[in-house]
Amino acid sequence: MTNSNRIKLTWISFLSYALTGALVIVTGMVMGNIADYFNLPVSSMSNTFTFLNAGILISIFL
């Protein structure tokens, strides 16, 4: 495997991890349960998790 292929696979892994995390949380698969646990509206909790996922994505690129 060449170094170019390793770099491409690394980027694909990072992006798929970030996309999967963003979709699972924000689309509501677990958002309702989390919002109920913290006694917050779903919109507030989804906003919080959107910023958390953005932070994770930024840290991946750094």
UniProtKB/TrEMBL annotation:
Keywords: Membrane, Transmembrane, Transmembrane helix. The chain crosses the membrane at residues 12-34. It comes from the Bacteria. This is Protein tsgA-like protein. It comes from Escherichia coli DORA_A_5_14_21.
